[in-house]
Design goal:
single chain; 373 residues; alpha/beta; TIM Barrel; Recoverin, domain 1; 2 domains; eight-stranded parallel barrel; two-stranded parallel sheet; 14 helices; 11 strands; 44% helix; elongated
């Protein structure tokens, strides 16, 4: 049995999604919700952004949340100085891992990169801060250099390292292999931070966890830059579903936290979004509904009750007699199979002729059921 640890980055990487900017009130509400959800650590922001960011982080710290807080920093002593002003003890230092980032972005060498990293870690530790180090663009880094980076970070006093698939190019099999190799030689907790550019954010995080990563960096609804990050709700479900793996997340609260972040970010949730989507426990097909009414497990591998949700029988073109009779029964109307079949035939014919919304569908079925009753 393994315990999944969550670093939620909704308030940092999530807010970096184009067009997203949380107000002070929204940041505090999201922090409260993440704490109530059971998130182990909240990457609460970037102190180097300035006084307003520092102020809201201090306000969140004053809440006395159970979740630990983490400040994201560049490899600069000035960033550490700004982080210190928040009073938060956990600081994360991001370090370029690939030559592309080292040479093209910063214009320095590998030697200079490691030197700056060690100096920044030492500086942060001199103030009693707990330091984690992340290798940005680790998925495009040379393996030998990446291991050296992590080993020197450990020797300098880092308590955890992050493997960042910054541009989301990995697949879950490669992720598993890479993290397995690292975890076998690096005796330090590994945090995997994945992006969803290929739609593999959750799969890669699962591969990383199985390969030895104990921490997963993710965000609510997968909010983040480009295609976003690993979605918190999906990776928690994937790792804890039908297994002995454990997390501190209260899965029954995932939908409400998802709704809060969707509203605050202004990015609506896809109705078919895994775990938290509006329609994922809705059923219309007559064959499916017949099976569900006999035993929900027939067509639900994940039960809605486990996630604080409920199933819904939807009436439409694909509804069968069993669906029609079931819904009418909930309205206190009893009909036989013959009449239900006639209603099914009318509904299907009408759906080929025109669009019928849910309200009109219910009205039409009720009207036909009561006719000649």
């Amino acid at each position: 049995m393994k315990t999944l640890k969550i670093v939620d980055t909704t308030l940092r990487d999530g807010e970096q999604a184009p067009g997203v900017a949380f107000t002070r009130t929204e940041k505090i509400a999201i922090a409260h919700a993440l704490d109530d959800l059971g998130v182990d650590m909240i990457e609460v922001g970037i102190a180097a952004m300035g006084e307003e960011e520092i102020s809201v982080i201090k306000e969140i710290k004053a809440l006395g949340l159970r979740s630990e807080l983490l400040i994201w920093n560049r490899m600069r002593k000035s960033d550490i100085d700004m982080a210190r002003l928040t009073g938060v003890k956990n600081v994360h230092i991001t370090v370029p891992g690939s030559d592309l980032h080292i040479e093209r972005k910063l214009g320095i060498t590998r030697v200079e990169t490691l030197k700056r990293m060690v100096e920044t870690i030492a500086y942060a530790k001199s103030f009693g801060l707990d330091v984690s180090v992340g290798a940005e663009d680790a998925s495009r880094a040379e393996d030998a250099f990446l291991l050296t980076l992590y080993q020197q970070a450990k020797e300098a006093g880092a308590i955890r390292v992050r493997y960042a698939d910054t541009v989301g190019i990995l697949d879950p099999f490669e992720t598993f292999e890479r993290i397995s190799r690292l975890s076998s030689v690096l005796k330090l907790p590994i945090d995997f931070h994945g992006h969803n550019d290929l739609g593999l954010g959750t799969a890669n995080a699962l591969g990383a966890f199985r390969g030895g990563a104990t921490w997963i960096s993710c965000s609510v609804n997968g909010l983040g830059e480009r295609a976003g990050n690993t979605p918190l709700e999906e990776i928690v479900a994937a790792i804890t579903f039908a297994s002995r793996n454990h997390s501190n997340i209260d899965k029954k609260k995932l939908a409400s936290v998802s709704a809060l972040v969707a509203t605050a970010s202004g990015i609506p949730m896809n109705y078919q979004k895994a775990i938290v989507g509006k329609q994922i426990f809705s059923h219309e097909s007559g064959i499916h509904v017949d099976g569900l009414l006999k035993d929900a497990m027939v067509y639900e591998g994940i039960l809605p009750e486990e996630y604080g949700r409920h199933r819904e029988i939807v009436l439409g073109k694909f509804s069968g007699r069993r669906s029609i009779r079931h819904i009418l029964n909930t309205w206190g109307i009893e009909i036989d199979d013959l009449k239900a079949q006639k209603i099914v035939e009318v509904i299907r014919r009408e759906c080929y002729l025109q669009k019928i919304d849910g309200v009109r569908m219910h009205s039409l079925i009720r009207e036909m059921a009561l006719r000649d009753a």
